[in-house]
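We both want to read discrete structure tokens more fluently, so let's practise on a single case. Would you write everything just below, so we can both look at the same thing?
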Amino acid sequence: MSVIQKKICLLGDFAVGKTSLVRRFVEDRFDDKYLSTIGVKISRKTMARGYGTLNLLVWDLAGGDNFDSGSSYLRGTSGAVIVCDLTRHETLSAFERYAAQVRAVNPGSPLVFVGNKVDLVEARAITDAELQTVCAALNGSFLLASAKTGEQVEETFLALAEQLELH
């Protein structure tokens, strides 16, 4: 059995829930206190796969316009999860910018797009159709997740892991 290690990055605007998604995935917990990530926070998650073990090094990157597209944080990344907040329409338009930044560093990197906060049904501002249109233009598909409830969080990272194995 082999052990493979891959670096993945989480990208998205401020307060879309990147840190909460990582915390739910790695530690299976949720904290509703908001603390903005400064720079990068690195976590590790080991996943049993058919060929052996996949060690994911999850880089949770600070979001927003101040994120440097030439950032050394993206060097060596094997793939990325790009996140929007389903309650804030403006976070969807950032998908294209973050996808371009990852692909500028590693053109073949698999990307998984996720609409977070699907549990906030009444506050939802982004439709499935809008997500489908944006993600199709970026040659990707999307998942709807909730870091709070755990819905589709594991599946988000599994989708990326499967694409990494094909890559």
Notes: The domain at 2-166 is CATH 3.40.50.300 (Rossmann fold). The chain has one domain: 2-166. The mean pLDDT is 91. The beta strands are 2-12, 40-49, 52-61, 79-85, 111-116, 142-145.
